[in-house]
Amino acid sequence: MEVGLVEVYTGNGKGKTTAAVGLAVRAAGWGLKVALVHFMKVGGYGESKILKKQSNITERFYGMNYFITTNKGISGLPVVVYEPGKPPIDYVAKVMRGLKWARRALVSGRFDMVVLDELATAVHMGLIGESYVLDMLKERPRGVEIVITGRYATQAMIDAADLVTEMKEIKHPYGNGLAARKGIEF
């Protein structure tokens, strides 16, 4: 690409990762090389079954087999409740490995697009410092598109972006107790 931009998909509504995966598929359809880096996720998603068949999409996961929160009301997954500002050390280490891999991918010249899925959430949860993200955006080669997803994008991330979309939840079936459905939510 001649000019790559920084895109941010944030907000409490559904569709942030879906939008980013759609961009990755569109880019791959035009022969662009895409790195899709998921933070705070371990895999097992329906889109990954298709994406791994695409030779020009590289997908990596940097999450743990448990959910972290400062809210004791979460249930349904193995949960680790932590004190604000003190996330689990093993989680921090895993996410930092992902960020280092993403940084190398970004400057390697191998990829036209780097998707950083749930990166904004990882910053919010204290797993990655905002300064690491902002430094990485400054290192971005001119022709590489960066896509950041996740709730709670910081104002600095928003300011650094060229395109920002906020997904706003109006109504969601989770509110009525409907669990995530295979093929729709994962």
Main sheet overview: 6 strands, parallel
Mean pLDDT: 92
- Which CATH class? Alpha Beta
The sequence of SSEs as H and E is EHEHEEEHEHHEHE
Q: State the strand order across the main sheet.
A: 3-2-6-7-1-8
What integer value in Å does the Rg equal? 16 Å
As for the number of domains, it is 1
Number of helices: 6
- Strand pairing plus helix content: what structural class? alpha/beta
Shape: globular
Q: In CATH, what is the homologous superfamily? A: P-loop containing nucleotide triphosphate hydrolases
How far the N terminus sits from the C terminus, by CA atoms, comes to 31 Å
Indicate the CATH topology.
Rossmann fold
> What is the total tally of β strands?
8
CATH architecture annotation name: 3-Layer(aba) Sandwich
Can you describe this structure?
- Helix content is 33%, strand content 20%.
- The protein has 186 residues and is of the alpha/beta class.
- The chain has one domain (6-168): Rossmann fold.
- Helix 3 (89-107) packs parallel to helix 5.
- The two termini are 31 Å apart.
Show the helix and strand layout.
Blueprint: E1 6-10, H1 16-29, E2 34-39, H2 46-51, E3 57-62, E4 67-69, E5 79-81, H3 89-107, E6 113-117, H4 119-124, H5 130-139, E7 145-149, H6 155-160, E8 163-166
Parallel strand pairs: 1-7, 1-8, 2-3, 2-6, 4-5, 6-7
Helix pairs in contact: 3-5
Question: What characteristics describe this protein?
Answer:
186 residues, alpha/beta, six-stranded parallel beta sheet, 6 helices, 8 strands, globular
